[in-house]
Design a protein that fits this description.
By secondary structure, the protein is α/β, with parallel strands linked by helices. It contains 7 helices and 7 strands. Strands 1-7-6-2-5-3-4 form a 7-stranded mixed β-sheet, with helices on both faces. Strand 3, helix 3 and strand 4 form a beta-alpha-beta unit. The chain is globular.
Length: 222
């Protein structure tokens, strides 16, 4: 009984937080969402993989999926030191030490991936432009049989820049991608271009870093 009450309060708290974020976003952004039809009815096996250029990314993803769809985020441990983000991050995220990723971080991420409901990961792990994606997202998706839901967020400007507020922002959601789809070699599109060779041995070593780069390239092209 106590556990059920705890889960209910946890969900109500998430919904209340989203209402506040939604009202704030109406002031700060002119948000446009493309591709909502690509969100499947059953989201339990999804890893929402998104670009990351602003601290606004997680809140906007939350309101994009709505009040009834609670998303569990993988977040950088350093956010716990921020008095604004600390409580929501601690309550609705699994935090990892991005700069010194260890066994404890891997175990925590694996636990998060095994729970029901969608997980949201930013493979680049930082808002710094040009950071290479980490391979952990692809590895854990493989271990837990999750699909990727690619998502791109673009901002016209910051809402704190003149003329202030109502900054244009767009969220684009692509169709889910299976890991096997990601592993499939790309084929040449230009006339005369040879298609990439297909793997002939299922036991070949998987280059997870290469797959992570391929995933992010796909997301940026949405």
């Amino acid at each position: 009984m106590r556990e059920k009450i705890g889960k209910l309060l946890h969900k109500l708290g998430y919904m209340g937080l989203l209402v506040i974020i939604y009202l704030a976003s109406k002031l700060f952004f002119r948000l446009k969402v493309e591709g909502r039809k690509n969100i499947p009815e059953n989201t339990d096996d999804l890893v929402i993989t998104s670009t990351h250029s602003s601290y606004w990314d997680p809140p906007l993803i939350g309101i994009t999926f709505g009040l009834l769809q609670k998303i569990h985020f993988i977040a950088r441990e350093g956010l716990l030191e921020n008095p604004i983000f600390s409580l929501p991050v601690r309550t609705y995220s699994t935090t990892i030490n991005r700069d010194d990723f260890g066994k404890k971080d891997l175990i925590n991420m694996l636990k998060a991936f095994k729970q029901k409901g969608p997980i949201c990961v930013f493979p680049e792990g930082t808002t710094s432009e040009g950071s290479p994606p980490k391979s952990g997202t692809v590895r854990l998706a493989e271990k837990t049989n999750r699909r990727f839901l690619p998502l791109k967020i673009e901002y016209g400007r910051s809402p704190t820049e003149f003329p202030f507020f109502w900054a244009p922002a767009e969220v684009t959601i692509g169709p889910p991608i299976d890991l096997e789809d990601l592993k499939r070699p790309s084929t040449g599109k230009d006339e005369g271009e040879e298609p990439a060779p297909k793997a002939t041995n299922d036991k070949e070593k998987v280059d997870y870093q290469e797959l992570s780069v391929k995933l992010m390239d796909h997301i940026r092209q949405l």
